[in-house]
Amino acid sequence: MIYDYENFKKDVYQLTNINLSLYKERQMKRRIESLMRRKGYTTFDAYFAAMKKDPALLRAFVSYLTINVSEFYRNPKQWELFENQMIPYLEKCFGKQIHIWSAACSTGDEPYTIAMILARHFPLSQIKIYATDIDEDVLAFAKEGIYSERSLERLPKDLLQKHFTKQGKDYQINADLKACVEFRKHNLLEDKYPTGMHMIVCRNVVIYFTDEAKDKVYEKFHNTLVKDGILFIGSTEQIIHAKEIGFDSVDSFFYKKI
Prior knowledge:
By secondary structure, the chain is of the alpha/beta class. The chain has helices at residues 5-16, 25-39, 44-53, 55-65, 76-94, 109-118, 136-144, 157-163, 175-178, 211-224, 242-245, and strands spanning 99-103, 128-133, 146-148, 164-167, 170-173, 181-185, 197-201, 225-232, 247-251, 254-257. The chain folds into two domains: 5-65, no CATH class; 76-257, Vaccinia Virus protein VP39 (Rossmann fold, 3-Layer(aba) Sandwich).
């Protein structure tokens, strides 16, 4: 029997609980084939056999697969909208104890950005961000909280000065802000979702999923949010069936649960 991409997807699911069938196939297959070539493998069966034996190779595959592209204050206009319109709205609806989930948080840039912006308006003791990702390596990086100057280029200077300590060429996020963010492993396509969230931030992730998978994720986000809660999505995304799922667009990239 010829071992093809279909076999590879099944075996990867058994090994990692990542269902490649829920990702856009042409795009994902091309990415994996590119990675295989760089690692020196020409067939799916040889690559999978090697990953089973080598934990480091498997971790590199999962990290590459989950497309960890992140930076602080990415798309500044969206963060300005978040601060100037969404935070007052959330406080009016839910008070000062606001529960926010940063889904597919990658290296932590996003949840720390959320926490820093909230800290302009609330005491740190009242801020709690639940941050999740499928990749354990990026979660470990996020918990460490050490970032390069390049990843902080867009961050407003007042936030950089207040919440980071310079360490050589890098910056360490301060412990008091770090304590505002709880990091956990979570697979958006497989795991149980939390409940009772006032806001979910999930940006530039579901664009890699099939349309069917996208709808399921958005439906689960809807169930996770309390009534009038807000979903904040990425600059390249939109929810096609928003009304059918139970969302109303309140501004660019922001949707309210109705």
